[in-house]
Design brief:
Layout lengths: L7 H13 L5 E5 L2 H9 L3 E3 L7 E4 L7 H12 L3 E4 L5 E4 L2 E4 L1 H12 L4 E2 L5 H11 L7 E4 L2 H10 L3 E5 L6 H6 L8 E3 L14
Parallel strand pairs: 1-2, 1-3, 3-4, 4-7, 8-9, 9-10
Antiparallel strand pairs: 5-6
Helix pairs in contact: 1-2, 3-4
Length: about 200
């Protein structure tokens, strides 16, 4: 069901919807069509200039270039609040990994000396928003993901049962080297193994 999906672009729309409600606040966005569409549907005012931007929102943008970097840089230095949909530095494709939103965010953090507010994992805002909307508590939630420093970390922070899938970005050797704070409760090779996994809360 589409209403059960909470991509980081949707979380950005929820967050900015609260911040900009009944206010003349404009948002400068760097991302792809999905992010723009989510913000437009939430009736958030968008801008294409750095001078009148109150927020700078950065997501995955495969057409990011120096001009966009400069525009975001100027807006942040002018006082715009810096928001990141996620900080994944790479993204898996059929040809291998490619730079992702986190690489863009990092470039802006380094150049502006400003730290981005992260809406997605491992920040608590995203998962708390999902759980609240569904009426879930930590006791009846299971988090399944492929990232130690995103999925597993946010699950640990909220004391949720965590399941790591090894078919994504985390390799077995990375798991073995992980500190206790990033160790999942369960490990499976692929999502196909999930139905047969016997999970005990607590």
């Amino acid at each position: 069901h589409l209403e059960d999906l909470f991509p980081s672009s949707h979380l950005a729309a929820i967050y900015l919807g609260h911040k900009t409600k009944n206010k003349n606040i404009k948002v400068l966005v760097f991302g792809e069509e999905g992010l723009f569409e989510e913000l437009r549907q939430a009736r958030i005012k968008l801008t294409s200039t750095s001078k009148d931007a109150n927020y700078v929102v950065v997501g995955m943008d495969r057409k990011f270039n120096f001009e966009k970097l400069k525009l975001a840089y100027e807006a942040i230095l002018n006082g715009a609040k810096f928001v990141a949909t996620n900080k994944d530095v790479t993204y898996p494709t059929e040809e291998g990994t490619v730079p992702a939103a986190g690489a863009i965010v990092k470039a802006l953090e380094v150049s502006t000396h400003k730290r981005a507010l992260l809406l997605g994992k491992p920040h608590l805002f995203g998962l708390k928003t999902v759980m609240k909307s569904k009426g879930y508590t930590s006791a009846d939630t299971i988090l399944v993901g492929d990232g130690l420093e995103t999925d597993i970390l946010v699950g640990k922070r909220l004391k949720i049962v965590t399941v790591l899938v090894l078919s994504g970005i985390t390799l077995e050797k990375m798991l073995q080297k992980a500190p206790p704070s990033l160790k999942p409760d369960y490990v499976i090779q692929s999502l196909l193994d999930l139905p047969s996994l016997k999970i005990g809360h607590g």
